Amino acid sequence: MARKITYQQAINEALDQEMTRDPSVIVMGEDVAGGAGAPGEEDSWGGVLGVTKGLFAKHPGRVLDTPISESGYVGAAVGAACNGLRPVAELMFIDFMGVCFDQIFNQAAKFRYMFGGKAKTPVVIRAMYGAGFRAAAQHSQCLYNIFTHIPGLKVVIPSNPYDAKGLLIQSIRDNDPVIFLEHKALYTMEGDVPEESYVVPFGEAAVVHEGDDVTIVAFGRMVNYAKDVAGTLRKKGVQCDVIDPRTTSPMDFDTILESVERTGRLVVVDESHPRCSMASDVSGFIAQEAFGALKAPIQMVTAPHSPVPFAAVLEDLYIPSPARIEEAVMRVKEYK
Amino acid sequence: MSAIFTVTMPKWGLSMQEGKVNLWLKEVGDSIAPGEEIIEVESEKISGAVEAAATGVLRRQVAQADDVLPVGALLGIIADADVSDELIDDLVTRFQAEFVPPSADEEDSGPQTQTVKVGDVQLRYLKMGEDSAGAVPLLLVHGFGGDLNNWLFNHEPLSASRAVYALDLPGHGSSTKVTGIASLEALGKVVVGFMDAVGIECAHLAGHSMGGGVCLAVAKLAPNKVKSLSLIASAGLGTEINGAYIDGFVAAASRGAFKPVLETLYSNASLVNRSMIDDMLKYKRLEGVDSALSTLAAGLFAGGRQAEQLASAASGKPVLVIWGESDRVIPSSHATAIPGATVKVMPGQGHMVQLEAAGEVNKLIGEFLSK
Amino acid sequence: MSSPLTREGLLQAYRTMRTIRDFEERVHVDFATGEIPGFVHLYAGEEASATGICMHLNRDDYIASTHRGHGHCIAKGVDPVGMMAEIWGKRTGTCKGKGGSMHIADLEVGMLGANGIVGGGGPLICGTALASKIRGSNNVGVCFFGDGASNQGTIFEAMNLAAVWKLPVLFVGENNGYAEATSSNFSVACENIADRASAFGMPGVIVDGFDFFAVHEAAGEAIKRAREGGGPTLLEVKLSRYYGHFEGDQQTYRAPGEVQHLRDTKDCLMQFAKRVTSRGELTMADIEAIDREVKAMIDASVVKAKADPVPLPEDLMADIYVSY
After folding, report:
1. Cβ atoms of B36 and B113 closer than 8 Å
2. What is the interface pTM, i.e. ipTM, of the complex?
3. Mutate which of A97, A300, A310 to disrupt the C interface (most C C-beta within 10 Å)?
4. What proportions of chain A, in percent to the nearest 5, are helix, strand and coil?
5. Do B287 and A197 touch (CB under 8 A)?
6. A170, A190, A216, A292: least CB-packed within 10 angstroms?
7. Could you tell me the residue ranges of all domains in chain B?
């Protein structure tokens, strides 16, 4: 039965249900419980923003606080995955991938292929991403494009509570390493989520708004901005398809292609920087596959090529805004 | 005294916030009778016609094609021919000035679904209309793979003079995904349990497709609880059924695979939009649904044949049978299986006749129940 | 033992510790009103560490700091007025409002940056020390890190590297007992962080971080050794933070009354004042004069920070060598 819960609750519920269903699922990370070795409460944090709160008591021995040793415990999660567990390692902020990237991209990502198909590595690495919290340059980045570049990794960016639960369950059941990215600004977003367990398959885009004039492809938090813009423009007579790829690897290019062949106009919205981004990736794909269908140059709406600034006034300028998305849509719509 | 009536943007389903006007089905100056379809509107999920609730003349088309308007917005005015234009213009001006669109986060004020437990099974249901001493309630039972939203265009119109319940069968919609139910009789038992649990002593039953078969099973199990039967494209009245449809429905795991399957249901395939397919996929992906549907399909429809024949269960009850002549799931030739039944086979219509020709189906059921 | 510090030195030490304390207490109050954005980690309680160590440093010596960096900044000579403006996200801030609390840096005074990445500073300070060594200066580098970072590979690698190259580095493990919400009793496998020094062939020293004089003395020896080419030292400073990991942390993992007890019995400012006045090295009037001056300065810094302008839109793309 569906009821409204938050993105954060949806993630907690997915972890809880999978841990209940499968004893090989474990959760580890810095303060995923909190209070280890301390005189006060156990499970005092349940993750830095409380996402894993309560799992520690429900699943004794399977929620592991770690020292601040990302290379160590992320690598250990990878190793445990090779030996029959399904670890979900939390990296807290995706920016911290810098500390442990070797274990992810040289180790986990390579095993299945490099070992001749004999290894499976069912590990999930969860992390928060994205700007908007005044958390400045080292706690605010959107690095999904970097993982998307690496063969052997699957990359998941849910934009709403329903997808967060279904995609996380799929991530845990998947036999390959999955990078599961949660936008901090979405944690409080509410949506209809079934109580039952369910999976959302990888590589299946969601079309969250339909229209024949312009295709908007957006990622993560930006999907919600794009959807709002499409709703506003619908009343002004401009009809937009809004496509949420949901996973950037594998990526549902078919749905994007089908849409652009119909609309002839593409806007890509990506909270990351413009170069070597999901925005340039989708643009490049469409330029190769649907050049003849295009009626206007592709528009990318991205963050600038700058680190994330601290000051509110600058960070607000940095993040792609609904106004910029609307402008881009109108530019391609009115292009002659 | 002459009356003026407003026609407003309907709310189809709990999530509908706004709708788009597709086209007017009546012109200004046309005479209108209650139940007549006057304007076609499209929500995110489905398109359908708004029916008139009053008698009169269509005096104004306030909304125009392609307008996107919030639920409750003014679409048009029906009034007697002798009402002055001035009065009508006044009403329109006043309505537009006072109209406040419902906000997205506003608690829905309309009827909400509820749940009830029958044994271990939690059933979701929606009740519309008021209990009244003289009126026997109506219970709507959906078909294979469906849910209470299959009655989206029927539920409210039929509830004007009685309480109308629609439920999700076990394994369906938001009810518990019980596995192991493999007969109409087993589903019938749950429905009898449901009626007891919500305090329905006796009801008119209306069932669509497999739900019709379930209604027949209830009549067989508990004849005293059944006042009449309205059977729409019903199972249990013959052996043939489109096995490819059933198998395709059970197997479909992606949008691409689901689309042609769902199109089988409708005479107008364009009704099968992305939102409908997405909703069906969301349902199919719930833990337990696969197994519930496979078990049910194997028990009821193995090899493209219906296992249970229940026409005799209707004997002694008033029965209305409605069928779309071009039904591609269960053939309309089954419509005459019950002797003495009132039978209406609707030309050009498919399996989902209660959605696609809601106005006429509502009228038929309404008249049948009032007899 | 009488302190080796002159009256001027004692006044400076107290002024620095008081400045850090008042700065942090004020940020704590203002953060609670919602006016200060972002993630803020306060150093209150740990003042003796930064102060006792940085008093041995020259302007051209470097320090690398942590996300809990305000105290290190002030002790190394970063202007608190600019820091306050930075924390408020103003254009007049130390980093023009683009870094914020976790990233305050002032290379002019040898402050290589607070750091949002735990353990990020260790390798960097090896680099500044290497540069000093190659250039033939006698500058040193100090890497502040916490008990949390003591478990990071970067810190292990940096310590080994500093020992291998015999770099003029002081590693300062500020062990406040908690890495976020996790106790160092759990996360640090050995008894003391300083015990790890032997693994890298360097001296390991443990010092009471509530005692300014103990820190000052131990750091003095290690820094002298480093300047003279004797290589790195690991100094573990045992102390406590008075506030949460970040502002907003309810600290339910700590024992009830834990912080109050420390404030009442061990506070570094309290101990310092008691010692210098009881010995007649400073008077209460000296102490109170500094308290007044510092309070006025911090109050003024907040008034200014509030009034200062926010960055301009064009600042977004300033200090980027290429844009698209």
Report:
1. no
2. 0.91
3. A310
4. 40, 20, 40
5. yes
6. A292
7. 4-98, 114-370
With tokens 């608190």, the residue in question is: C80
CATH top class, domain A2-194: alpha beta
Which of A196, A199, A235 shows the shortest C-beta gap to B288? A196
Q: B161 with B129: CB under 8 angstroms? A: yes
Q: Are C117 and A95 in contact (CB under 8 A)?
A: yes
> Quick one: fold of A206-334?
Rossmann fold (3.40.50)
> Which of C94, C180, C247, C306 should we substitute to test contact with A (largest number of A Cβ atoms within 10 Å)?
C180
Q: What strand order describes the sheet that includes A206-209?
A: A206-209, A240-244, A214-218, A266-270, A299-302
Pairwise CB contact (< 8 Å): A198 & B286: yes
Domain C7-256+266-315 class, CATH top level = alpha beta
The amino acid present at B49, given as its one-letter code, is A
For residue B306, give the 3-state DSSP assignment.
Answer: coil
The closest of A216, A172, A121, A203 to A11, measured between CA atoms, is A172
Closest Cα of chain A to C149: distance in Å? 6
> Please, which residues 112-141 of chain C have a Cβ atom closer than 8 Å to chain A?
115-119
pLDDT digits 0-9 by tens, C65-101: 999 999 999 999 999 999 999 999 999 999 999 999 9
Encode pLDDT of A240-267 as tens digits.
Answer: 999 999 999 999 999 999 999 999 999 9
Could you tell me which residues are beta bridge partners of residue B216? none
All residues of chain B having their beta carbon less than 8 Å from the beta carbon of residue A162 are 282
- Start-end of CATH 3.40.50.970 domains in chain A: 2-194
Helix (H, G, I), strand (E, B) or coil at B42: strand
Closest CB to A317: pick one of C251, C258, C316.
C316
Find chains touching chain A: ≥3 CB pairs under 8 Å: B, C
Establish whether chain B is in contact with chain C, requiring a minimum of 3 CB pairs below 8 angstroms: no
- How far apart are alpha carbons A68 and B72 in whole angstroms? 56
Mark out the alpha helices in chain C (DSSP H runs): 7-32, 47-54, 70-76, 80-87, 121-135, 153-164, 184-187, 212-227, 258-265, 268-278, 284-307
Threshold 0.80, pTM exceeds: yes
CB B79 within 8 A of CB B4: yes
How far away is chain A from the Cα of B323, in angstroms, using its nearest Cα?
Answer: 32
Provide, as residue numbers in chain A, all residues whose Cβ is less than 8 Å from the Cβ of B115. 1
Residue range B114-370, CATH number = 3.40.50.1820
Q: Which chains lie within 8 Å of chain C at 3 or more CB pairs, if any? A: A
